[in-house]
Amino acid sequence: QVRLVESGGGLVQPEGSLRLRCEASGFRFKEYAMMWSRQAPGKQREAVATISSTGDSENYVDSVKGRFTISRDNAINTMYLQMNSVKPEDTATYFCNVRVRGSNYWGQGTQVTVSS
Fold this sequence. Notes:
By secondary structure, this protein is an all-beta fold. About 0% of the residues lie in helices and about 55% in strands. The protein has strands at about 5, 10, 20-25, 35-40, 45-50, 60, 70-75, 80-85, 90-100, 105, 110-115. Strand 9 (about 90-100) and strand 10 (about 105) form a beta hairpin. The radius of gyration is 13 Å and the shape is globular.
């Protein structure tokens, strides 16, 4: 079955950096586009960044453009989110997402807290 495991979250100071990791299994990772989303307390989940199956195309929500970078390593079924110059408003639980055969999947999430 599809399994997504996020890691790498934690407490980081404003303007700091963090690298999130998503390890995938149960599907042909290299054949699917992937997405990072986030949900802050009391807010709706929002898509943060997407990456094509080959990794040659990326898209970002405006609020993270120029600060976050999504990437993937198809050899080890892993996706990343490099977060630089983080802001307090980036505080949220971050999820790895994939749509496989018409169904959406995501992991348990990893908490990112930006605070001094």
